[in-house]
Amino acid sequence: MTTARKLKISISLAADVLDAVDRRAAAEKTTRSAVMEQWLRNASRQADLRRLEEETAAYYDALTPRERADDAEWADFASRSARTLVIDEPAKNKPRRRSRPR
Prior knowledge:
single chain
């Protein structure tokens, strides 16, 4: 994995926010920059997730009654199919390994 080039910027923060950054940096034994980068990445991911949720809700809200019925049928089919799956159980009728005579 390559590390992206870091850019130096100047920002202004409220004192209480800077105190929170400093406390986290001290607790994690890292830098202010690392803490702020982590927080900004998390905030960006959360914003992307909210946008995706809003777009998904808008998609389902825009479905016609017929499309909703089709979607319900597919969901029911998928649920019934999923109940028949066997996961993490040993396969049946698998030949046993014979132990060697000692």
